[in-house]
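Re-running ArsR family transcriptional regulator to confirm reproducibility after the cluster update. Everything else is unchanged from the original entry.
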Amino acid sequence: MSIIKNETTIDDEEIIALRNAFAQRARWMKLFIDEMKAQGIDWETAARNAIGNYGESTGKNYQNQMEGPGLSDLHNFVCAKWSKKVFEADIIEDNEDHYHFNFHHCPLVTGWQMEGCSDEEIKCLCDIAMDGDRGIARGLDNVKFTLGKTIAEGHDCCEIAFDRIKK
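Result of re-run:
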């Protein structure tokens, strides 16, 4: 029996469509990994590198668009209005030095569940997917990423933090 709790409270047609798109991409990720496994490829390294590199490129793009050196407008990119609803996010802290938020729903987890993944597989796939966020932090100027609890581990939310590194 699964320990994962991944309920939704927002029942909006557009948000559901966006969640379905995220879930579909999670399913693609799982199927790509299954094919890499079948071909004897070091699938975890390949997946982490690809997703991390994409995240880093995304972070650099965000940095180029941000108004200043701080994190105060990171919310315009990472947890914009639509994604806030898709992931049922609560913003915990949003200022020049800290951008912390909690997700209460994850459509990626939904996609992996649709593929029949076990809780352990989902936990691994989630951590690989979070390499994208780790990469975003690498692409930003002097930013550290911290992942706390996750839905994939059976918690009620995913705790995500981007913090400015003071030099």
